[in-house]
Specification:
Layout lengths: L1 E8 L2 E10 L2 E11 L2 E5 L4 H14 L4 E6 L5 H7 L4 E8 L2 H8 L6 H5 L4 E5 L2 H6 L7 E6 L19 H8 L2 E11 L4 H10 L2 E11 L4 E11 L2
Helix pairs in contact: 1-2, 6-7
Length: 228
């Protein structure tokens, strides 16, 4: 195993590491942990990519502007940028260390993302931003992949976002017909009900994949919501 970065953050100890796959010794995985809890891996990116691709499929059109909450390893941003309908992608990342990893070439997609003129990465709290009712920018798609789930946040600051009041505030940042998409490792009925109270159309989509870490199927959940 290689430790690429090991840093104290307001959320705990953040670690970026690489390790070999047992079945492919020449193939390296990149992983992020927080306080020694597993967050994400470059081995399984199905749901992170689907968060962007499914939202953009529902939008269609041209010159779409996308806001992504949480950079992670960059796979949601990459999937958004692969779409020909996307004009610009703004990634809002709370931890400056993660932004430094991107700019320093430590992430698997660093070179690809840093070469993309449509991408901008900003330091900020996406929840705080979306709860602010003073709207100066509007987006066609807002993609959120920060917490493990609404019930299992990285810290306590995001709770209000998942309520009807918080989601209604977030909806003000969308253009008419825009899509809000949320990632979660588990279904969450209160969030589903809150979304239904704010948006006209809400979908709960399971993304099932074979988790090679534990050798069994896993399912992540995406919530897609729109006023059309």
């Amino acid at each position: 195993m290689k430790i690429l970065a090991y840093e104290e953050t307001p959320l705990g100890v953040l670690c970026l590491r690489q390790r070999c796959r047992p079945e492919a010794p020449d193939s390296w995985l990149t992983e992020i942990t927080l306080d020694h809890e597993f967050l994400m891996s470059s081995l399984h990116t199905d749901s992170e990519r689907a968060l962007a691709s499914l939202a953009l499929e529902r939008l269609g059109g041209v010159e779409r502007r996308v806001l992504i909450g949480g950079l992670g390893l960059g796979y949601t941003a990459q999937a958004a940028l692969e779409s020909s309908v996307v004009e610009s992608v703004v990634v809002m990342e709370f931890l400056p260390q993660v932004i430094d990893w991107l700019r320093g070439g430590l992430l698997p997609l660093s070179a690809t993302l840093m070469a993309e003129s449509r991408l901008s990465v900003e330091r900020g709290d996406v929840y705080e931003y979306l709860l602010d009712e003073t709207v100066t920018r509007w987006f066609d798609a807002i993609l959120i992949d920060v917490d493990h789930s609404p019930d299992d946040p990285l810290d306590g600051s995001s709770g209000r976002f998942y309520t009807e009041v918080g989601l209604r505030s977030a909806a003000r940042h969308l253009t008419p017909g825009g899509v809000l998409a949320l990632w979660s490792y588990a279904q969450h009925s209160p969030t589903w009900e809150s979304l239904r109270s704010v948006f006209k159309r809400v979908e709960s989509i399971p993304i099932t994949y074979f988790n090679q870490h534990v050798q069994e199927d896993y399912t992540d959940w995406l919530y897609l919501a729109s006023d059309r």
